[in-house]
Design goal:
The protein has about 270 residues and is mostly beta strands. About 5% of the residues lie in helices and about 45% in strands. Strands 1, 2, 3, 4, 13, 14, 15 and 16 form an eight-stranded antiparallel sheet that branches. Strands 6-7-12-9 form a four-stranded antiparallel sheet, with no helix packed on it.
Length: about 270
C-alpha cells in the first residue's frame, strides 16, 4: 500500500487548527497541566476519614489514620477508616507515611468492605460464596438469611451494607457484582435492592472482612521517619469500602507510632 503524506499546506492547516484549540494564558503561551484529578474534583489531603454516623454529609470528621502500639498491646493493630462516597465521588491518589520508634516494624494499607449480618438458615434467597460474600440464590434454595430476612423482596436499606465495585478508569469495567439498588437522594436510603444473578450489578455484600486491595504491602520501618508514596495514578473508592492502616510490631515488644496522610480527589471537601 502506498502512503500519501500530507502536503505542506495540509500540515500548516492542521497545526493552525491545533493551536486554536489549545488553552493559553494572557501572554499567549500554551498552558499544560499534569494531573490525575478528574474534572469536577479537588485535591484533599487528610489523616482522617469521614464520620459514618452522618454518612451523607460529613467530610473529614471520622477516624484518624493512627496506630499507637504500647507495650502489651496486640502485635497487629489497625485503624479502619470510613469514607462517605455515595454523594461525594472520591479517588485515592497517593500518600505520606510518618512513624516514630519503629524497630523493623511494618505498615500496610488495604481496602476492606463494610459488613452485612447473616445467619445460617435454609430455604432462603441467599448463599455465601467463598465463606465471605453474600450472593443471590434461586428463590427458596439458599442457606442463610440477611439480618433475619429470608427473601429478596423483604430486604431494606437497614438490613444490608452495600459495597460498590467502582468502575475502572482504564477500561470502564467493574468487578463482578451481584446486587443492584437505587439511591434516593431525598430520603438518603437505598431502594429496590435486587439480585443481579449474572454478576453484572453494581454492589456486593460481605459478611466477613477480606482484603479487596492492598496498596501498601508490609513496608519495613526503622527508627523515626517520613516517606512519600508517590504515584501518577488515581483509583476510585466505592461506597461501603474502607481504608485500613495496620501496624505490625516485630521483635521485642516496644512502644511506637504510625500515621499517614493520604491524597484524595473529591467532589466535596467540607
Amino acid at each position: 500500500m502506498t502512503a500519501h503524506p500530507l502536503t505542506p499546506a495540509q500540515v500548516a492547516a492542521f497545526l493552525a487548527q491545533d493551536r486554536q484549540s489549545q488553552v493559553k494564558n494572557v501572554a499567549g503561551k500554551v498552558i499544560f497541566q499534569e494531573t490525575s484529578r478528574d474534572p469536577g474534583k479537588v485535591t484533599w489531603f487528610s489523616s482522617k476519614g469521614d464520620n459514618p454516623v452522618s454518612p451523607f454529609s460529613d467530610v473529614g470528621g471520622g477516624t484518624k489514620f493512627l496506630v499507637h502500639h504500647e507495650i502489651g498491646d496486640d502485635t497487629i493493630q489497625a485503624a479502619t477508616v470510613d469514607f462517605n462516597i455515595i454523594e461525594n465521588a472520591t479517588d485515592i491518589h497517593e500518600g505520606y507515611m510518618i512513624w516514630k520508634g519503629a524497630l523493623l516494624d511494618e505498615a500496610k494499607l488495604e481496602i476492606v468492605p463494610t459488613l452485612t449480618t447473616v445467619n445460617v438458615n435454609t430455604g432462603t434467597d441467599f448463599n455465601l460464596y467463598g465463606g465471605y460474600m453474600v450472593t443471590p440464590a434461586s428463590p427458596g434454595t439458599g442457606t442463610l438469611d440477611i439480618n433475619g430476612k429470608t427473601t429478596n423482596a423483604s430486604l431494606t436499606d437497614a438490613d444490608v451494607s452495600l459495597v460498590e465495585m467502582p468502575m475502572s478508569k482504564e477500561n470502564g469495567t467493574r468487578s463482578p457484582a451481584y446486587w443492584n439498588a437505587d439511591w434516593n437522594t431525598t430520603t438518603k436510603v437505598f431502594e429496590n435492592i435486587a439480585p443481579a444473578y449474572g454478576g453484572d450489578g453494581i454492589y456486593n455484600m460481605f459478611s466477613v472482612e477480606v482484603t479487596l486491595n492492598r496498596f501498601v504491602n508490609n513496608i519495613v520501618l526503622i527508627d523515626s521517619g517520613f516517606m512519600m508514596l508517590q504515584t501518577a495514578d488515581a483509583n476510585s473508592i466505592g461506597h461501603g469500602l474502607r481504608v485500613k492502616l495496620s501496624g505490625i510490631t516485630n521483635g521485642d515488644d516496644h512502644e511506637w507510632w504510625l500515621s499517614c496522610i493520604l491524597t484524595f480527589h473529591r467532589e466535596k471537601t467540607v
